[in-house]
């Protein structure tokens, strides 16, 4: 397991113990359930940053009550009951001793640690009218979150207009969110329901027979037994018939995600504020940049290009450190025509060439090794790609890299 996966696994076992001690039924869900069903372990080359479980509304209430009674040190539990900016009807069990700052979505959290996302399994309601009213409120509430979707249906726009006076009448977002949470828990609790569904923020529903979330199956994940839904029916509905080979869905670590499994997020944010870069200020700048991007602003495109150039510089140096010491071996493999072995050694170079090619940049840290890489492409029948890559190489990248010390020597 990676460091992130160890944190998520620890959180999952904590949730499991709370549920077992309080008679709460839950299931591994989505990417976490899929990893367990496919490999019985976390999959390192498909690392994601959330663990996923699902439980019915009444079990979520029990879990919240158990958590509030237990008050586990270094843990928090976010939902509409304590955070009106949390994006969806559900909850998130968080490790406060870690750092997970997902900058595109950080405005929806109050606690910036790694966590277990709890999705609500919703029973189809007894009252069709109450179900419709709850749906309108939920859609309208979702439409009040920023950033606003690019296109909004007439139904969603109407729902938003109907909700705004209700928020004001309730006394603000905090109170409305708490009331809506309790209302949805009531509406979507129906022990006799034959159908259930799950739903995420601004997304479509997934419908299941209630028996899919009946007596749970047991699955092993990293040699620990967890409950999960009826595998075949659950995964076919989410991912289709090819679910056994499905790549894990979910949020991954990207350039917009700041993570650390050892640093408490509060310490990180405090240090960032001391340096004059508060999270609120950063998000304002990012929101402005996103608007420029959406408007097709030429200045933003220029900024993006310079960022690409900056990242390419880092890529060149990384490759220089990794592959330059292997140059004699690389040249030998090329000279002897051992292209399979050569391709394996140059795999990091191939990956970064492809990444930079997508943004119109060529990548060279050593002209001789570049020629070896281009010959690998040609040997694969990709002559045109090899020539396109070569054409993007700037002349200065064909010069030797010179490493200087602090004295410029």
Would you write up a description of this structure?
The strands form three sheets. Strands 1, 2, 3, 4, 6, 7 and 8 form a seven-stranded mixed beta sheet that branches. A two-stranded antiparallel sheet has the order 5-11. The chain has 15 helices and eleven strands. Among the domains are: 3-125 and 188-245, Beta Polymerase, domain 2, CATH 3.30.460; 296-398, no CATH class. The protein has 409 residues and is α+β, with helices and mostly antiparallel strands. The protein has helices spanning 3-21, 30-39, 57-70, 128-143, 154-170, 173-187, 231-239, 265-274, 279-294, 298-323, 327-335, 339-345, 347-357, 367-379, 383-391, and strands spanning 27-28, 50-56, 75-78, 90-95, 99-102, 115-123, 195-199, 205-209, 217-221, 224-228, 257-260. The protein is globular, with a radius of gyration of 26 Å. The chain is 49% helix and 14% strand.
List the helices and strands and how they pair.
Elements: H1 3-21, E1 27-28, H2 30-39, E2 50-56, H3 57-70, E3 75-78, E4 90-95, E5 99-102, E6 115-123, H4 128-143, H5 154-170, H6 173-187, E7 195-199, E8 205-209, E9 217-221, E10 224-228, H7 231-239, E11 257-260, H8 265-274, H9 279-294, H10 298-323, H11 327-335, H12 339-345, H13 347-357, H14 367-379, H15 383-391
Parallel strand pairs: 2-6
Antiparallel strand pairs: 1-2, 3-4, 4-6, 5-11, 6-7, 7-8, 9-10
